[in-house]
Amino acid sequence: MFEERLKQKLAVQKEQGLYRNPPEVSEGDGRTVKVAGRTLINFASNDYIGLGRSETLRKAASDAFMRYGTSSSSSRLVSGNASVICEAERAYADYFGYEDALFFPSGYQANLAILSTLFGPDEMLLFDKHVHASTVKGMQLGSAPFRGYRHNSMSHLEKRIKGATGNPVVVTESLFSMDGDTPPLADLARLKRTHGFRTVVDEAHAYGALGEGGRGIARGVADVALGTFGKAMGLFGAFVLLPSLYREYLLNFASPLIYTTALPEAHAVTALAVLSEVEQADAQRARLAHLSRRLTHLLTDRGFTVCGEAHILAVQIGSEERAHGLVKKLFDQGYFAFTARFPTVPMGQAIIRLSLTANHTEEDLEGFSDTLYRLMG
Ligand SMILES: Cc1ncc(COP(=O)(O)O)c(C=O)c1O
Fold first, then answer.
1. Is residue 21 over pLDDT 90?
2. What is the pLDDT of residue 224?
3. Which of 32, 131, 205, 330 is deepest in the core (most CB within 10 A)?
């Protein structure tokens, strides 16, 4: 029976410590969340520089929705290709230093579109084995063959390039969503010069938070880059930065864009306000970097193995059950953290993923690391 199969699979998830049952969050201000009437310090938000709660942006968004209405009511390919969206895309391309840009309703859809549409049997996608699920799904949906290389290993990538059966396209992230580390971008650029391949770099966790003016860290090496509005940019949706020819191609052939309702005009107007906020956020970026270093030190001083070079830190735990148990206990002690378990990370390598925002206080970090240390006991 169909229902029996669903129940059985859910029971196996529970047995393996993989069951997901996200708590209902009633309120949040970026630094904290309220769950079941209790206020917890939130180490599981991607609002890295606090823009998601910015008064200026909230006002810009509400004015934009009042002026332009609440829906585009159509696909981009029908009557949803509004001038303000095209204008905002040009502004994004200029700001991030690419020829063109294309907005998507979500980063998930953007990755599906890029990887399944642009590349075909003449190419071979060589992907870092830790790339996001949306990238993996995009490759699976497309017709280009794909092969993984060891996480951040440029020697393994070079081996794959030499053995590629089509024109290689390297697919990676600039700041990995779970590990919080970055590929050796200078080495990747050197390999690119030597072998002349194309690259797709997901900068979802870097734009707004890293690089000069929040422009990310991979411009020197990326041919196509993906940014999400829903993280440091404090909004929702996504943008892809790319050559104009690729944009034209995606508008003609990318199902995840053609057969979906466009983001509303008010989104594009708000996205322009986001850009000016991001440009002026040097102080928040400096604070975020400071807090990230501070939490890394606090945790490593207490003997934890911590991976992560910026505002995403992965505390290595190992067993799924142990990680899940710890997160539950942290919750009881007033801290909201997220455990990444299989299939998000490999089996038996569960982590507690911590993400910081510029709004955290030093006391938040000290309280958290003391509590985790006590709980590990
Ligand atoms: C690296 C990466 N790429 C893409 C996405 C998808 O973006 P979105 O949330 O806008 O769908 C995410 C997370 O959500 C991500 O972490």
1. no
2. 98
3. 205
* Separation of alpha carbons 167 and 329, rounded Å: 50
On whether the CB atoms of residues 232 and 209 are closer than 8 A, the answer is yes
Q: Report the DSSP pairing between strands 146-149 and 198-202.
A: unpaired
Distance 228 CA to ligand 1 centre (A): 6
CA of 163 to the centre of ligand 1 (A): 30
Rounded percentage of the chain residues whose pLDDT exceeds 70? 100
56-279 CATH fold: Aspartate Aminotransferase; domain 2 (3.40.640)
- CA distance linking residue 229 with residue 248, whole number of Å: 22
Domain boundaries, the chain: 14-49+282-376, 56-279
Nearest-angstrom CA–CA distance, 43 and 45:
6
Fold of 14-49+282-376: Aspartate Aminotransferase, domain 1 (3.90.1150)
The atom of ligand 1 lying closest to the CA of 111 is 4
In whole angstroms, give the CA distance from residue 17 to residue 322: 9
Please tell me the distance from the alpha carbon of residue 253 to that of residue 108, in angstroms, as a whole number: 17
From 103, 108, 229, the mutation candidate for ligand 1 (largest count of ligand atoms within 8 A of CB) is 108
CB 146 within 8 A of CB 126: yes
